[in-house]
Amino acid sequence: MGGLKDVRRAAREAGRRLGWKPTTTLVGGRLFVLDKREVPEEIEQLAEDAAAAATDRTWREHQ
Prior knowledge:
Blueprint: H1 4-17, E1 22-27, E2 30-35, H2 41-61
Antiparallel strand pairs: 1-2
C-alpha cells in the first residue's frame, strides 16, 4: 500500500461503502477508523449494561 494518506483514504472509502460516516485518527502509530453516526439507543443501552455487569463482576471477584 501507499503512504498514510492513501491508507486513510482507502479506510474512509471502505467505511462509506458500509454506510458509515467515517473519520480516521492516528494514535501511537496505529490508524483507527471511527463511525461518526449516532449510536442507536438500544445499542447504547446494551453497551452500558455490559459495562456495568463487567464492573460488578470485577468488583465482586476482587473483594
